[in-house]
Amino acid sequence: DGGITQSPKYLFRKEGQNVTLSCEQNLNHDAMYWYRQDPGQGLRLIYYSQIVNDFQKGDIAEGYSVSREKKESFPLTVTSAQKNPTAFYLCASSARVTGSNQPQHFGDGTRLSIL
Amino acid sequence: QKEVEQDPGPLSVPEGAIVSLNCTYSNSAFQYFMWYRQYSRKGPELLMYTYSSGNKEDGRFTAQVDKSSKYISLFIRDSQPSDSATYLCALLFSGSARQLTFGSGTQLTVLP
Question: Degrees (nearest 5) of the Cα angle B26, B29, A54?
């Protein structure tokens, strides 16, 4: 079955530590996205990537970094500079980006907490 | 003012009721409209997608778009306890290379 796999499902971070969240898709989608979801709020975009080796900042990129070395993979690193990292992180992908009529499909998220 | 406003709920209805979920938006450049359903501790799942004014039906779900009023709705007929979830509207600009703009979500509980 095609889909988006996020791992781990739960992650704990110590103060001053960087952690990396994995996102893999086998949908052959060009574009991938990372969102952050906080209770009672909608999804906020962290980073997005339209093609391999290219990515752009979203609305809340500070304290996060990404890479896109393969079409299937778009890992997100939460750095120690992100002072309030506790949230539910969602990865998504879509077939096209510009003028897209292909909506985004989501993984089941990673819940990050601070120890 | 937020670009997309969504009734926050929570909304609680008896099984079999008709549910109406709504979003308003301020930017007429939005051209694509989606509704996602999100169960607890899961990712959003696409329910409905449309780009024109009017109604689009899929089983018990109807998406309604009124571009002149900048208002979108999702109707659920014969609601079931399995419909209990958070519903998110999401909008996209035509030609956008960025991302969806999401409403904050409405939490729905259907009581058996």
Answer: 115
Q: What is the mean pLDDT of chain A?
A: 90
Asked if pLDDT for residue A1 goes beyond 70, the answer is no
Is any Cβ of chain A less than 8 angstroms from the Cβ of B43?
Answer: yes
What proportion of chain B, given as a percentage, has pLDDT over 90?
75
Strands (E), B9-97: 11-14, 19-25, 30-38, 45-50, 54-58, 61-66, 71-76, 85-93
Find the residue in A nearest to B4 (Cα). A42
For residue B95, the chain A residues in CB contact (below 8 A) are 98-99
* Closest residue on chain B to A42 (Cα): B104
Residue with token string 């909008």 = B91
